[in-house]
Amino acid sequence: MTPRERLQERSEWVRAETLRLHARAPETRIASSLSDVEILVALCYGGFLDSTADNQDNSERDHLIVSKAHGAVSLYPILADRGFFSLDELQRIGREDALLCPMPDCTIPGIEAINGSLGHGVGVACGMALGKRAKGLKSTVFVVCGDGELNSGAVWEAVMFAARHRLANVVLIVDNNRTSMLGRQKDILALEPLEDKFAAFGWVVRTCDGHDLDALCEAIGGLKCETRNAPKVLIANTVKGKGVPSLEDDPLCHVRSLRLEYIEEILSR
After folding, report:
1. Are the beta carbons of 203 and 231 closer than 8 angstroms?
2. Which ranges of 46-167 does DSSP label H, i.e. alpha helix?
3. Contacts of 28 (CB under 8 A, 6+ apart)
4. Torsion angle of the four alpha carbons 38, 225, 65, 22, in this order, in degrees rounded to the nearest 10
5. What pTM was computed for the model?
6. How confident is the model at residue 259 (pLDDT cuts 50, 70, 90)?
7. Nearest 10 degrees: CA dihedral of 31, 32, 37, 40?
8. pLDDT of res. 105
9. Cα 110-112-115 angle, rounded to 5 deg
10. Which residues contact 170 (CB under 8 A, 6 or more apart)?
11. What is the pLDDT of residue 116?
12. Topology of 3-267 in CATH?
């Protein structure tokens, strides 16, 4: 199996496992957790993130903050696969005595910050990045946020802070699925031109198809090697509810749950 085939295989597995997690715990936000699958696979299996279950106490390691916590359920299979906890825990999600809960928090190995209240993950990442630089550490702080989070002023405060302090060790990836909790972003608080906004704040900007693993790896690699002394952002254009037709076409898919029979139908295709 080539590296590219391995990434594709992991992506398909993570999407299927995320649907199975939703079948066991219907309160999980399935649409949001499906749009960032390839982003998380590219980061965790593409050779960009050196964080492993064995090096969590290493201050020189990279960090991953999933700011869109409701969409981080798709990270559970990856963490289990990478040894942060047993794969058996995926079967127990949502139970009273389970390790895994529908809204990820940092009691779960591999989850690095509590971000149940949206809009704070970028600020957390900036604080970590500033601390690393003060200690002379060269590692990267990756942060994944949703485009709906960009409606929050706290995000733009962090964006300005990162630019002002030239936090070149921050790589932000925006899961730009263009649909937030109450509908299409264009009807709520239009963000376009998003690339121009980040550029105006002094960030290095790239854009790609957020479901194309080759494009993601090329863009993330390019940003990590970027020599300009500025924070970096990748705007990954995605589809909310990717892989589930009834969610992809629904502007209110964020709050939808899927029937068990429909999940089984999707998984059998």
Report:
1. yes
2. 75-81, 121-134, 153-164
3. 21, 22, 73, 93, 94, 102
4. 0
5. 0.96
6. very high
7. -170
8. 85
9. 125
10. 125, 126, 129, 140, 141, 143, 162, 231, 232
11. 66
12. Rossmann fold (3.40.50)
